Amino acid sequence: MGNLKITLRDNAWIRWGMLLMVGFVLAANYYFYDALSPLKSKLTEEFGFSSTDFGLFVSVYSIPNVFLLMAVLGGVILDKLGIRRTGFMFVSFMAFGALITAYGASDIYTNGGWGYGFMSSFMPSYSPELKMMLLGRFLFGLGAETSIVVISKIIVKWFKGKELALAFGVKLGLARTGSFLAFNLSPILIESPAGWTTAIWFAAFFVTASLIVFMIYMMLDLKLDRQSQQDGELVKSDPFRLSDLKKLILNPSFMYVTLLCLTFYSAVFPFLSFSADFFLNKFGLSVKESGFISSMLPVGTMFFTPLFGFVVDKYGRAASLMIYGSLILVLVHTCFAFTTINPYVLMVILGIAFSLVPASMWPSVAKIVDEKRIGSAYGFMFSIQNIGLWIFPILAGVVLDKTNAEGVESLNYTFTLIMFAALGILGLLFAILLKREDKISGYGLELPSNSK
Ligand SMILES: NCCCC[C@H](N)C(=O)NCC(=O)O
User: Fold this and answer.
1) Per CATH, the architecture of 18-230+239-451 is what?
2) What is the mean pLDDT of the chain?
3) How many angstroms separate the alpha carbon of residue 87 from the centre of ligand 1?
4) Is the dihedral of CA 216, 218, 219, 220 positive or negative?
5) At 153, which helix (H) or strand (E)?
């Protein structure tokens, strides 16, 4: 018989309150990731960025996670150092990287401020502004992905055996509030009397504020650990071993879910980064309106993801929902490429796909993988996913530059969208394989959350 002592995680108000706090950190993270997307044409106007430069800027976020295996390493560090120290370290990286990016676009820097001379002294085909902003986004990415791993582990810690899928859904909904705000606020902030870079500084300060919120969370976390230690309820992570990684890689269910994660997200996040510019070019809209249409995607997911999380908790069917979500993604990209169907409608439908897959995928990992390895498992998945988040924004930019003559009045996005639709088809295939495999391995992905 277990100890019946009540801990902080048994208090629903505290449990959901702490979710709001970590949700704020995620919202800041997503805000910064997307804040410059509606500014693509502004960056071309001010600093001469080509589509390839913009793609490079988006993708440099993923370089530490692909080449330094930061998300895996972060998962390992997390399993070793724990939530508080790891979280603090990586949210600090995020804040520092965000501030450096804003500095790279600022007047102080462009008028010869600190580092300008150095950044001008090599690779002259890349502007000093681009180089400093790349450095900032690199550091931001180094902290951002690992901090999402930390927050995923926090959710499992507080919600396992309770409303886990719903909590994941709400967490994603809060994160995407950040994207929603970015697509709407950035186009307004570029008109600020203090100058267009206000949009970037605001994003950087938002991330800095999230560091303070994380420090408040750390106090709650400490208290829960003390209570759980007294109860003997604390789940200690085993030290990370390479053989664990091998076990994960040899698990077909885990690999299908990881490959779905790679292909599905590669067809969504890089598309979202270019989407405002796509609407601006294809439909001849203003920066504000095209940013607003892009924000329909996160706004849809803010409601649908918790809803589907609730459905997965209560009725299961996670593997099937991943298949439906992947199918919708393919249909929407095909429509974007070949039709002029109202983009508002298509973005909301894409929001359904972007809710179905994440709301069922992330909690499914907790069924496939032992809780002691969950940090490493999410870290591994994020690192593989980041290969796509690194390559596809660059490819999207290159395809755009190659399929459009220089200086053309409006960019044609057809080939770029065909690329995203093809990624969606691969994702669909992995989702089908995952469902088939679940019947063999019996992880119960089609069952409600509390039945496993
Ligand atoms: N904010 C853009 C990149 C976030 C990537 C992150 N590794 C992730 O997978 N997030 C889950 C989600 O569904 O947003």
Assistant:
1) Up-down Bundle (1.20)
2) 91
3) 17
4) positive
5) helix 128-159
The two structure tokens encoding residue 210: 């999230």
Pull the structure tokens for residue 244. Answer: 């664990």
CA-nearest of 320, 297, 50 to 178 is 297
- Closest alpha carbon to 359 in 393, 320, 403: 320
Q: Two tokens at 390?
A: 């690194």
Best CA proximity match to 389, nearest among 61, 156, 161, 46: 61
What letter represents residue 264's amino acid? F
Per-residue model confidence (pLDDT) at position 352: 94
Q: How far apart (Å, rounded) are the C-alpha atoms in residues 244 and 353? A: 32
Q: What spacing in Å lies between the alpha carbon of 308 and ligand 1's midpoint?
A: 17
| Six token digits for residue 431 | 């989702």
Question: DSSP readout, 347-376?
Answer: HHHHHHHHHHHHHHHHHHHHHHS-GGGHHH
Q: What is the DSSP string of 227-267?
A: HHHHHT---PPPPP-HHHHHHHHT-HHHHHHHHHHHHHHHH
pTM over 0.80: yes
- pLDDT tens digits for 92-142? 999 999 999 999 999 999 999 999 999 999 999 899 999 999 999 999 999
Per-residue pLDDT, averaged over 76-103, amounts to 92
**Cβ 148 under 6 angstroms from ligand 1:** yes
The tokens for 34 are 């997307």
- Please say if the pLDDT value at position 1 is more than 70: no
Cα 433 to middle of ligand 1, angstroms = 23
Ligand 1 pocket residue status of 265, Cβ below 6 Å: yes
Spatial CB neighbours of 249, under 8 Å, sequence gap ≥ 6: 255
ipTM here:
0.96
Residue 232 pLDDT = 55
Q: What is the pLDDT of residue 2?
A: 46
- Nearest CA-CA partner of 324 in 427, 252, 417, 171: 427
For range 399-410, the mean pLDDT: 87
Instruction: Report the alpha-carbon distance of residue 390 to residue 406 in Å, rounded.
Output: 25
Round to whole Å and give the CA distance between 373 and 353: 28
98-107, 377-386, 391-400: range with lowest mean pLDDT:
377-386
Whether the Cβ atoms of residue 278 and residue 404 lie closer than 8 Å to each other:
no
Q: Which two tokens stand for residue 389?
A: 């988040």
- Ligand 1 within 6 A of 172 CB? yes
Longest dimension (CA), the chain: 73
